[in-house]
Design goal:
single chain, mainly alpha, 2 domains, two-stranded antiparallel ribbon, two-stranded parallel sheet, 7 helices, 63% helix
Length: 178
């Protein structure tokens, strides 16, 4: 608080104004603008179900896989591991799950989607590592057969370390370079 003079010889304190200057004010304004735009679109288009609870619920349900991938990426970044295979895992996992569920049922779709996601992440990781100039890649030992089946042009120039435990990854990552 700053000191001000009320009358000659008297000293008091000035009250601070409570005008929001943080990001909260911006968020409130953005939400208000979003509600206004949705109302305008609803009136202009005549689509009264645009803001119904079913539409909002469907949008939230369909955004969960993207949110989960985002959280996975956030947690791996906070742990110091850059997971550059998230997009590959999501894309190939989705295609594999859809194809297998159509062919053999939903539970087979879940299993095949998981397998395709793991292979897709591995392919995406190795390709991105090669394109970005990284020469060492750490993969789980369980994926050794997948690495062996990859085309030679993807593996060319890469040193691929297969590990059983995360402590091995730390030993590789923290080893002194020659």
């Amino acid at each position: 608080m700053s000191l001000i003079s009320k009358l000659p010889g008297e000293v008091g304190t000035a009250k601070q104004s409570r005008i929001p200057t943080s990001g909260a004010w911006f968020v409130l304004m953005a939400l208000g603008l979003l509600v206004f735009l949705m109302a305008v679109v609803r009136v202009v288009s005549g689509a009264d179900d645009l803001t119904s609870s079913g539409t909002v619920g469907a949008a939230l349900a369909l955004s969960i896989p993207i949110a989960m991938a985002g959280l996975g990426g956030l947690w791996s970044e906070r742990a110091g591991v850059v997971n550059i295979g998230l997009e590959g895992m999501m894309i190939l996992g989705t295609w594999g799950a859809g194809w297998a569920a159509y062919q053999w049922g939903p539970w087979t779709g879940v299993l095949v989607g998981t397998l395709f996601g793991a292979v897709g992440g591995l392919v995406h990781k190795l390709t991105a590592a090669a394109k970005s100039g990284r020469r060492e890649v750490i993969v789980p030992k369980a994926n050794a057969s997948d690495v062996a089946n990859l085309p030679a042009e993807i593996k060319q120039g890469l040193v691929i370390h297969s590990i059983n435990h995360a402590s091995e990854a730390l030993a590789i990552a923290l080893a002194e370079q020659p």
